């Protein structure tokens, strides 16, 4: 089973700042089958990024994904108030596994 | 529009059984992989199981293998999860989700396993 480790656990930033979230896999993720989701309290997760770097439909371009192999990054270029949420990475190349999540909170 | 509606959650005693359903609409259900993903209270996401569009390929997380059974009825646009031998650690909101990765999610149904 591929284990995904996200860091940091909590990230405290202000609106307008840049956020960088990390996701590291215990073994190489095949064909960059790596996705990122956003989840707000009381809501289902929403797909942001798939294939490590492709934005899902309707996702603003301030969200970007990068990486390959075992190291992946989600970057939010300029934080908007609605971006403060929990973010999960997921690999879907070898069954599915999720990272434990990064909480992005307002500083 | 795409809609996924889960049902069947509730309170069940340890060792008991429950069957979850997910009614799909707004897309051609038989064209898509479907998954069950759960989230324990205050915790992260955990993938439970997925099933291919035809039902010929099925995978389970080790934590539920041998206890849970995923199935689908493409004629009824429905996905199911039969959960047996339930444990306290199975307590969670259970989401059905479409695609690989999951582009559409239901609102979830809460399963509570407690005596």
Spell out the blueprint of helices and strands.
The complex is a heterodimer of chains A (107) and B (115).
Chain A: E1 4-7, E2 10-13, E3 19-25, E4 34-39, E5 46-50, E6 54-55, E7 63-68, E8 71-76, E9 86-91, E10 97-98, E11 102-106
Parallel strand pairs in A: 2-11
Antiparallel strand pairs in A: 1-3, 3-8, 4-5, 4-9, 5-6, 7-8, 9-10, 9-11
Chain B: E1 3-7, E2 10-12, E3 18-25, E4 34-39, E5 45-51, E6 58-60, E7 68-73, E8 78-83, E9 92-98, E10 104-105, E11 109-113
What's a quick, concise take on this entry?
The complex is a heterodimer of chains A (107) and B (115). With 107 residues, chain A is mostly beta strands.
Describe the structure.
- The complex is a heterodimer of chains A (107) and B (115).
- Chain A has 107 residues and is mainly β.
- In chain A, strands 2, 4, 5, 6, 9, 10 and 11 form a seven-stranded mixed sheet that branches.
- In chain A, a hairpin with a 3-residue loop joins strand 5 (46-50) and strand 6 (54-55).
- Chain A has strands at 4-7, 10-13, 19-25, 34-39, 46-50, 54-55, 63-68, 71-76, 86-91, 97-98, 102-106.
- Chain A is globular and about 35 Å long.
- Helices cover 0% and strands 50% of the residues of chain A.
- In chain A, 36% of the residues are buried.
- By secondary structure, chain B is mostly beta strands.
- Helix content of chain B is 0%, strand content 50%.
- Chain B has no helices and eleven strands.
- In chain B, strand 5 (45-51) and strand 6 (58-60) form a beta hairpin.
- The termini of chain B are far apart.
- In chain B, 37% of the residues are buried.
């Amino acid at each position: 089973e591929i284990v995904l480790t996200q860091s940091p656990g909590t990230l405290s930033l202000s609106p307008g700042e840049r956020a960088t979230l990390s996701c590291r896999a215990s073994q190489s993720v095949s064909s960059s089958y790596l996705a990122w989701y956003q989840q707000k309290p009381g809501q289902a997760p929403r797909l942001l990024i798939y294939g490590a770097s492709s934005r899902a439909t309707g996702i603003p371009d301030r969200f970007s994904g990068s990486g390959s192999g075992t190291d992946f990054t989600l970057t939010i270029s300029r934080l908007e108030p609605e971006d403060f949420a929990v973010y999960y990475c997921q690999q879907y190349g070898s069954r599915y596994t999720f990272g434990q999540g990064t909480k992005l909170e307002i500083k | 529009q795409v809609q996924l509606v889960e049902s069947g959650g509730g309170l069940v005693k340890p060792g008991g059984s429950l069957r979850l359903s997910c009614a799909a609409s707004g897309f051609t259900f038989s064209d898509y992989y479907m998954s069950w993903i759960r989230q324990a209270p205050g915790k992260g996401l955990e993938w439970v199981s997925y099933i291919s569009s035809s039902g010929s390929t099925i995978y389970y997380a080790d934590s539920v293998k041998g206890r849970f059974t995923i199935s689908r009825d493409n004629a009824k646009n429905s996905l199911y999860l039969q959960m047996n031998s339930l444990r306290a650690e199975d307590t969670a909101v259970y989401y059905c989700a479409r695609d690989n990765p999951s582009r559409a999610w239901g609102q979830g149904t809460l399963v509570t396993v407690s005596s």
